[in-house]
């Protein structure tokens, strides 16, 4: 089914619409927040952003999802999920007001980043509760359709929120007071998601009482062993593991592209003018958003024509070739187009990876497989930013970085082809 058809099917359920509305409002707020933090960390007129600071900023934005991700399920399976969706937005709203106050007070950056980490930690619980609640609001036969539309719709809402953040920054200004207003606005909008969640019955989203459920301390210890078991199971399902590996490779190369683009716009194209640089990066984000949306539309058809494995290879190889053609001239116009290309390729690979893991991994291991998936998805991006901090020059113009990105995609496609071909041969 297409995205539109899936969305039309699941929206028939009243409880799903309420949970879906909670997600859209919260992720719209995320877009405002992420834009505010990005502007403060990378494009503040008072700061001279370096590649190392870009790495630190991206780590703050993503590490809570990598580190906390596998462990939050222990608590999501014990606390009322509806109450998490009601209470977490208020906690996050307070933390955002604290973060806004820290910006206005011009405290050292580590204090602000600490507040941002707390905000994102609370958000990780919120998003996990949303995911765990989904089976309670849609019948089993519609769960696949619901899983197909909710993350994508949330991503689109985040992009829209980032767009509003850009407009608000133009109104509020790029100084500390403007950033503080953005953070406060995000907090107010996020709190609205609690009002949507309150329309659901307290018992609707579970979890149901289970006397055999282990104590939280024992469950936390089991998470680590469970991840190891999940990794071993994935190794025995090499197509799923290879597709997840392709996704992880994309995230690493995309992370390098992000760091490269930020430094290029900040110093090479805009010659240090923070506002001009931010507008340029905004165009790249728009390009990536359009590419992501297009991938959602075309991937169901391309995978029907080529098959999942061949489409992953085409997307990865095409991303490398086009990135080289668009970025190596180091012309400003090439980066938004490259963002579009990587948006199409990245979302295509992610959809294929999601589908392959759901298709090939046994149900009893599926949750652990997706925990590993989330860790790779965010961790590889942060690792890429760290590598970029080492290799990028002050103005960002690095032929070496572009070559790594351009060669990395086709090389990953080739390795993926070798693994999947060998796996099919063994089955035959």
Q: What is the highest CATH level, the class of the largest domain?
A: Mainly Alpha
| Architecture (CATH level 2) name of the largest domain | Up-down Bundle
The CATH topology of the largest domain corresponds to Growth Hormone, Chain: A
CATH superfamily of the largest domain: MFS general substrate transporter like domains
Q: How much helical structure, as a percent, in the residues?
A: over 70%
Runs in which pLDDT lies below 50 for 5 or more consecutive residues are: none
pLDDT averaged over residues: 84
Count of individual helical segments: 14
SS elements, strand count: 0
Gap between N and C termini, in Å? 30 Å
Shape: globular
Radius of gyration: 21 Å
| Structural class estimated from helices and strands | mainly alpha
SSE diagram, text form:
Blueprint: H1 3-10, H2 14-42, H3 51-76, H4 81-104, H5 109-133, H6 143-172, H7 176-197, H8 216-235, H9 238-269, H10 274-306, H11 308-327, H12 334-360, H13 363-391, H14 399-427
Helix pairs in contact: 1-6, 2-3, 2-5, 2-6, 2-7, 3-5, 3-8, 3-13, 4-5, 4-7, 6-7, 6-10, 8-13, 9-10, 9-12, 9-13, 9-14, 10-11, 10-12, 11-12, 11-14
Which properties best describe this structure?
mainly alpha, 83% helix, MFS transporter, membrane, MFS, single chain, transmembrane, Growth Hormone, Chain: A, globular, transmembrane transporter activity, 428 residues
Summarize the structure.
With 428 residues, this protein is an all-alpha fold.
Give a written overview of the molecule:
The chain has 428 residues and is mainly alpha-helical. It has two domains: 1-205, MFS general substrate transporter like domains (Growth Hormone, Chain: A); 230-428, Growth Hormone, Chain: A, CATH 1.20.1250. The chain has 14 helices and no strands. The protein has helices spanning 3-10, 14-42, 51-76, 81-104, 109-133, 143-172, 176-197, 216-235, 238-269, 274-306, 308-327, 334-360, 363-391, 399-427. Helix 11 (308-327) packs antiparallel against helix 14 (399-427). The mean pLDDT is 84.
